[in-house]
Amino acid sequence: MKKAWAKSLIFLIYGTMASFSNAFHHLLPNIKISSSKLHASDRSRDILFEGSGLPSKPGWKNSRIGRLTEWAGSKAPNRPIICEYDPSGFWIWRKWQGTVLKMTKGSIVCLMGVTLLLDVLVRRHGALSGSTWSLLEVPLKTSIVQSLTGMRKMWQYQLTLATFILTFFLSQAYGYWQTVYNTCRMIQGRINDVSLLLTFGAKRVARTEQTGKEGYSEESEILLSRCNRLLRMSHIFFWAAQPTASNGLSDCEEFVEDAAKVLEDGVGLGPLLLSSPGLRAMVNSGQLSEGEAKELTTAALPPSQYAFMLLTWVGIHIMDGMEKGLFRGGAGFEENILRNLTFLRASMFDIDDFRAGRMPLAYVHLVQVMVDSLVFLAPFALYPELGSMTIPLVGLMTLFFRGLLALSKSFLDPFGVEGFGEQDIRVDVLVSELNFGAAKRWIQSGKTLPEGLSKTRLASSPYRPYT
Q1: Of the N and C termini of the chain, which has fewer Cβ atoms inside 10 Å?
Q2: How many whole angstroms separate alpha carbon 156 and alpha carbon 154?
Q3: Residues 365-402: tens digit of each pLDDT
Q4: In angstroms, how far is CA 213 from the centroid of its own chain?
Q5: 290 SS3 class
Q6: Is 232 buried (19+), middle (13-18) or exposed (0-12) by CB count in 10 A?
Q7: Rounded to 5 degrees, what angle do the CA atoms 158, 164, 165 make?
Q8: pLDDT tens per residue across span 432-465
């Protein structure tokens, strides 16, 4: 009898380990892309900037690849930067997408199934020896139940240690996610700072004698628009070169299907936008000039460095503009411009640096082993004192511990490239927000000045300086 029971227990543990491994195995799709030609979009620049602004919607039927340029030119984000929430408890309880319930459903079902099987086997073994108990009763102290009692003490020590380490691991992972998010916003902020400073310094002339409004000089407006356009494109090319899975295009199934007809290698947005066909599409949409696209493709740098080439061109244009008097301001203006450009460069480099050193393997491995062994041993450690009630309790424990671990991993994957798409930072929103700021907000704000800067106009103004 004991021999048969031992075989059953071995079979149970072996089957549990196999099903447990399969339940947690995440398989990322590999998309094979075949070669073809990209027909550049014939839309004019005006139509492009008046587009639908819905780069993340999947219902594209015509010219889906043409939406690549629309993605780059969009100024209206169509979704939040992250998965938002309503503070109402009832609303939160009804959510499934983006929650730990979705991330751990396989683990919960697997462990509850193991506990149910254990309950059936223990009851059958007790019935053979004449011991029976009701559904909610504590199991009788049969030989098998007594053999599981010792495991509980060891499991309790592990529970305390795992709780402390896992909660600390979660706080570290969230700190990493918050740092990456803040850096993304810092990149936006430095570009907006440069655009604002250029608007301040652009040379101005009186446009009309009737209104007294002042505006940019023709040459300074051209240079200002060029610098802002190159800043936008540097930001776009930077994110195109980064591995991201939530950019409004790569996470769209139909876009990926069309992209498969364009390039042979590479998956997602970057290989398409930074390729020669992608650059030609940007030229046709008015976001790059022919000369700029040619210089990018003939430069002795890989496409991943296009963003920094454009950033360098911006600095050179600004310095030339200051020498020609198209930008006003002295050493302080120049120092602020250069400081923000170098801070922008540093923030861009930080994204790769954070990803490279996000968490040591040994730390993640320890937490993974600790949590997996804890939830696996939970049915055997809790059953002697809880009996059949172990089944729902194990489901809750799996939800909490496996949920905390999955949530930590999703924080360590802020752009969803490793399959944790619940806490993604949505790159398409970053791009569209910056496009509006660099291409419209500051230039349009400084295009006219209601009152001139002469002493006569200042004296006739109804407003007086504060004293």
Answers
A1: C
A2: 6
A3: 999 999 999 999 999 988 888 888 889 999 999 999 99
A4: 44
A5: helix
A6: buried
A7: 85
A8: 888 887 777 888 888 877 664 544 444 444 444 4
